Each structure stands twice: as C-alpha cells, then as structure tokens.
User: Which sequence fits this backbone?
C-alpha cells in the first residue's frame, strides 16, 4: 500500500493524484514561499504550564506506514529516547529559564530603596548640640509603554525557548532515524556477507567432489577455496562494523538496536513525492523558520524597547526629617531623572541593526529550508527509480548465476565463469539492498521533516 503522507500529501492530508516528472529546477511556488515577508508575532500569551516532554502530548501521532512499521522502533520507544537526549533536555530547561526571565521583565528592574541619616549639629559659637534624623524611601518607575514592551519581550523569550525545544526534538528525531538505519545497514551487510560465505562454502564442497571424481582440475578447487576464505574474512569485518554501529547507537539513544538476525527488508511502499506540495507542508510547520520568525520579531521588540529608553525613567521618593533637635520638621518629595546622552542613541542604532540582521537570517532560513526540502524530495524520487533498476538488475544477475552453475555442472563453463557470475550476482543484490535501506531511510526522513513521524510535542502556546 502507498503511504499518503510520503506521497506528497498536502497539509490537509490529501494525497497527490499523480507523480510529477523529475525536475531539477526549484519550483516557482517554493521560491515565492522562500521570499515571503516576515510574519511573526512575538507578543504571545505566557507558555502553557504542561511539560512538553509529557508522552500524552504525542497521542496525536499517526500510525507508521506498513513498510516502516516493520523496520523502525515503536513510536513510544523512539519518543522516550528522543526526550532523554541531553540536548533536548537542555532545551527543556531553557523554557524554565525563559519563564523566569519573563517574570523578571514583568517585575521590572527597580526596587524600593530606603535611606536613614542620623547626624549631629553643633554651632561654632559653642551653642547647644542637636541630634538630627532623616528617613527617605525612593523607587524608579518605568513609563507605562515600557512595562507593556517588557511583557511582550518576556513572552517572546518563552515562545523562542519552546520552539527551540521543538527544534531540538526534531533534530533528535532526524538523528535517531540516521542512527537506526546505519545499524540496519551494517547489520544487513553482515547478514548478506554471511549468506555469501555460506554459498561459497557450498560451492567448495561441490567442486571438491568433482575434483575427487576427476571431473575438474585441482586448480578449480584452489580458486574456490580462495574465494571462500575471502568471504569468511569479509564476514568478520562486516560483523565488527555492525557491532560498532550497535554499540554507538545504544550509547547515544539508550534503546535496543534492530533485532538480530535482522529480518528481511520490506519493499518500500510509497508513491513518488509531489515536490511542491511537500515543500508547502514543510513550510507550514517548520521549527527552524518559526524560530527565525520569533527571533526577528523579538529583535524588533528589543529595538523598540531601546528607543523607549531615549526617555529616561524617573526616580520618585519621599523623605521626612527632624532638624535642630526637633525644632524643625521636614517632609518632602524628590524626583530625579538621568539626562540622556549619546550612549542611549548608540544603543538604539545597534538594536535596529540587530533587528535587520535577524530579518536577513529569517530570509536565509526560509531559503535553506525550502532548498533542503526540495533536495530531499527530489532525491527520494530519484532513489525510488534507482532502486527499481537495481532490483531488476539483481534479479537478472541471480538468474545468470543459476544458469552459470548449471553450465558448470554440465561442463559447459569453467570455474572462472562460475565465480564471476556469482560475484556479479552478489554485488548486484548487495547494491539493491543498500538502495532499499536508503530508500526506507529517505521515506522516514520525509515523514520526520513533515512532523508525521515522531513529531515534537504539541505546544498550545503556538
């Protein structure tokens, strides 16, 4: 069955009706989307209090396509492994940090300051001495527009942290796909090498019987035994590489690698990708772009905040005192305000430049994401065509090897032709299986990038 998701389904889940021809040009729709204007609102509401790593937030995940369900770990297992990655947990803690920063910005930078003065007054002419006291309390105040701007900056920081967490999760899912298929690829290579070695051992046994019966020269036995020895060496090397890949995967993700012996690989079962629709789906829900959007909007807020600082904040206080031993009593109000200088203007210019830089980073991110999605979808279509050709070539090479074996048994072919035919069949099947693993991996990567496989936790703040 074809998987509608990998077949270029649009965001509503409708599968494309037909497969487009392979076109190496960037689709016009993708170019238009890459150059789209900025549209980010960094003044969102405070973040949802739920823990984004809560597995309950993943209940929306769709079922795996049949081909991937046979080779990938269960979604629950994979999501637990992703949530436990240090870089993902660090991003989760960053949400806590930004939440505290939001509260700090909302509270403002100023605190009440209390001041007490006790002094003694003495007249030069030798008159009486007086004890004098003064108490004062004062505090800086933000102008009302600055209070609202600080709240927006705090909310933007939380949104940035939450999307950073989702982006780290997405990268973790990509890494898990790559690591899982690396183990699968090496394990299948080891299994294939073992099968090849067994075939060559059987061939040696047949040739020994022919040599013993006088139907074949001893040189043929030597050639076959040499091939068998090389096959045994290849098995040991392939098994070592598979063991290293398994150990690396286990250390990195803490879950079991594909079971051994690795089962036979399923045939990839998805239609060619509708490239334009795939790019639209990626752009509709992409954390890299969303991060850049929030960062750009936050930079604009920072520039506005620095511009607001051109009007300094006042410090207001009240004080009361007793002078000349209580003969005089003083009650007053004080107001002070800094006199702004060129440093404030320079900070505004720097913040505006940073905002312009963030806008350019957003545009660059859009182009990069579109190009990456286009390349992945194009390579997926090309990989499917390549696998079809390799599958046909492997079947043909195996039939030729069977014919060569019968020809050798009848004395029509020599040992050289037989070994060559077998070697070609082995190489063709190995190439087909490598392409099959690559195609399955590409299928999984397409789904991960569309958030249709091991998607990041849903964020109600978005």
Assistant:
């Amino acid at each position: 069955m074809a998987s509608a998701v990998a077949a270029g389904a649009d965001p509503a889940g409708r599968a494309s009706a037909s497969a487009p021809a392979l076109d190496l040009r960037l689709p016009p729709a993708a170019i238009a989307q890459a150059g789209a204007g900025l549209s980010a609102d960094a003044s969102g509401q405070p973040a949802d209090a739920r823990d984004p790593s809560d597995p309950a937030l993943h209940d929306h995940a769709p079922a795996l396509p049949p081909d991937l369900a046979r080779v990938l770990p269960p979604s629950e297992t994979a999501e637990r492994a992703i949530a436990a990655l240090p870089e993902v947990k660090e991003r989760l803690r960053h949400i806590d940090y930004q939440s505290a920063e939001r509260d700090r910005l909302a509270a403002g930078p100023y605190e009440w300051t209390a001041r007490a003065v006790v002094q003694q007054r003495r007249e030069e002419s030798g008159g009486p001495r007086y004890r004098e006291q003064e108490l004062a309390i004062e505090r800086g105040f933000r102008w009302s527009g600055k209070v609202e701007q600080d709240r927006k900056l705090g909310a933007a920081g939380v949104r940035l942290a939450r999307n950073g967490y989702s982006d780290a999760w997405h990268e973790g899912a990509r890494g898990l796909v790559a690591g899982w298929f690396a183990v699968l690829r090496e394990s299948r290579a080891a299994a294939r090498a073992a099968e090849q070695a067994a075939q060559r051992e059987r061939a040696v046994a047949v040739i020994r019987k022919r040599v013993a019966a006088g139907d074949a020269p001893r040189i043929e036995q030597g050639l076959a035994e040499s091939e068998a020895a090389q096959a045994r060496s290849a098995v040991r090397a392939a098994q070592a590489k598979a063991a290293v890949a398994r150990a690396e995967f286990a250390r990195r993700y803490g879950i079991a690698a594909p079971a051994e012996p690795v089962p036979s690989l399923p045939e990839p079962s998805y239609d060619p990708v509708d490239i334009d629709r795939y790019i639209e789906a990626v752009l509709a829900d992409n954390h890299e772009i969303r991060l850049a959007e929030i960062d750009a909007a936050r930079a604009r807020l920072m520039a506005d905040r620095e511009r607001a600082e051109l009007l300094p904040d006042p410090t207001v206080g009240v004080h009361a005192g007793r002078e000349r031993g209580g003969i005089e009593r003083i009650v007053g109000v004080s107001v002070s305000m800094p006199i702004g200088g060129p440093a404030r203007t320079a900070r505004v210019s720097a913040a505006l430049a940073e905002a312009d830089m963030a806008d350019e980073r957003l545009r660059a991110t859009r182009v990069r994401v579109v190009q990456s999605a286009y390349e992945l979808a194009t390579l997926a279509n090309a990989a499917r065509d390549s696998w079809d050709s390799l599958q046909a070539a492997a079947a043909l090479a195996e039939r030729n090897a069977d014919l060569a074996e019968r020809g050798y048994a009848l004395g029509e072919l020599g040992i050289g032709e037989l070994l060559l035919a077998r070697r070609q069949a082995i190489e063709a099947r190995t190439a087909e299986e490598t392409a099959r693993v690559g195609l399955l991996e590409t299928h999984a990567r397409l789904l991960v990038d569309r958030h249709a496989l091991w998607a990041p936790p849903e964020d109600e703040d978005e």
User: Anything to note?
Assistant: The chain has one domain: 28-449. The longest strand covers residues 129-140. Confidence is low (pLDDT under 50) at residues 1-50, 55-60. The beta strands are 113-122, 129-140, 315-323, 328-336.
